[in-house]
Amino acid sequence: MAPPTPTRHRRRGHDPESVLSIAVGVFNERGYDGTSMEDLARALGVTKSAIYYHVPGKEQLLARALDRALDGLFAMVADERAASGTAIERLEWVVRQSVRILIDRLPYVTLLLRVRGNSATEQAALGRRREFDRFVSHLVKEAAADGSIRPDVDPALVTRLLFGTVNSITEWYQPARGASAEDLADALLKMTFDGLRGRPAA
């Protein structure tokens, strides 16, 4: 009896999710523009033609990766907890959730923060980022208007500094040795909001 025909080991068990995950790692290491399909094939341990079994090309992988980061943020924006309660409560919740999303989707958020608009895909991602920034800026303005945070700090500057701090986590955080997302969010909120909160009139 003839031995069974071997399965398609040339793809080494890769599915669209594993292809995307490995590709994002290569993009973050080499830079998207500096990554070729040959680089991706080498990282995956397959031929270039095998990659096309899963995805039409490099830019489609980039688009899927950026959507993975952005979809998490916009799911948060759509959550009722981002729309109910006082402005300061909503702002604190959004910051806390942003840290959680960043840690949960660290490679994807890292890639998002490095795009510069060099293609239509990157420009679309930057447009969605600006939309999220406007949402946060509106929350900051609401909190300033109702006296929840200090009125003597420019809301636009608060937004940039606050999320600049959140985004900086991608530059140094190591999941194997770092604090939990909850620990990071607690520390960030204590450092920023204790200084931002408005003080009752004497």
From TrEMBL:
Statement: the UniProt record of this protein carries the keyword DNA-binding: yes
Domain named HTH tetR-type: residues: 13-73
Keywords tagged on the record: DNA-binding, Transcription, Transcription regulation
PROSITE patterns: HTH_TETR_2 (PS50977)
DNA-binding positions: 36-55
Keyword DNA-binding listed: yes
UniProt xrefs under InterPro entries: Homeodomain-like_sf (IPR009057), HTH-type_TetR-like_transc_reg (IPR050109), HTH_TetR (IPR001647), KstR2_TetR_C (IPR041490), Tet_transcr_reg_TetR-rel_C_sf (IPR036271)
UniProt name for this protein: TetR/AcrR family transcriptional regulator
